[in-house]
# Entry
Amino acid sequence: MAAVEAPQFDLLDHGMFAEREPWDVFAWLQEHAPVYRHPEPGTDGFWCVTKYDDVLDVLKRAKVFSSEVGGTARIQIQEPDVLEARRNFMETDAPLHSEWRRSFARDFTPKSVARYTEQLRAIVDGVLDEAFEKQDICFVHDIAALIPIRVLGTILGLPESQWDRFIELGDRMIIDSDPEIAIHVAGSAEAEAYKYLPFGSEAAAELCAMGRETIDKRRAQPEDDVLSVLANMEIGGCPLNDRDLDNNFALFVVAGNETTRQSMALGLLALLRDERAMAEFSQPGAVTPQSVDELVRIASPVWHFRRTATEDTAIRGQEIKAGERVVVWFAAANRDPDAFPDPHRLDFTRKKDEHLAFGRGGPHYCLGTHLARLEIQVLYEQLFPRLKSIEQTGPERRLVSNFTNGLKEFPVRITAK
# Structure
């Protein structure tokens, strides 16, 4: 049998992800090298895991595959002092991670999130009012970016006057590989000066200073919001220091904003490319938690997260040595044909809670899962009854990022009934 030629690819190349979603690369890996040793100049490389069952296995074995050792958001090896300076609670393991999560858990249960439903509907209606008045809009900037930050601002208790600024600063922190967004691109000589700030970004200084104003007020006079919890919580019996406050405030702004935005945008793009799915999803009563979950699966707004092996182990029979980096590709796993037959097709009959976009199965399961689902559901519940037509009016432009799967431009024309 002739050897199967591998496609040419470099998963460290942010530009490849700007040009397209490389499903062909992931399909090849899933079939021929599901646990693949990816080369990296100057290192011994890292493992890429792309099959659904294997990604789920890594997430579940959190003691063996650590989030704390080496961090989670960057594939590249970071200096220990840099990693420690930027560490947020996502980059901790049990029991510390469990202690952090318990502090916030009650604010993000389905019941707690549901109390914001009417405020969310008002926010969505306001955003849609402005969008329908313009008609020719960028769906990313004029709808998808505005809803999550306004909801997040309400839940965190941030002043409304700061919300729009948080969008820009959050983008500069998390999309630090895109020269049209970041002031200093990650890895550049200019970015080196900011490596000890949250996310290694120059934008973190201003963002955290803005957050600290509200945090200081909540320490003096707590209210019923998440920042009051952050401002007054203790870990290991000690109040949070300034670094922990800044790192975790920055995490809330980024995590509560970018991924929900891109789920909305990529979800709509998938619907516009599939008349059958759009016809089904836009029917009265069709926007349900189950159908929204399928939209999130097809969107998969995060390409990957990293883990580090703490002991010698194996994945699918492949030996993994202690200290080696293991990168789990969430988006690829969500298009695994062995887990999702006809994986590139929107199928609203698929089971809810099966996809991995929220990191199911492990202790780092997304804290804001229920909020994200609710935001997406309310957007489409409010949009479709008002919508006469929607069409894409120009090519979408993708983010230059191998971490965030998303769009930075998505021009559409919307017409009201």
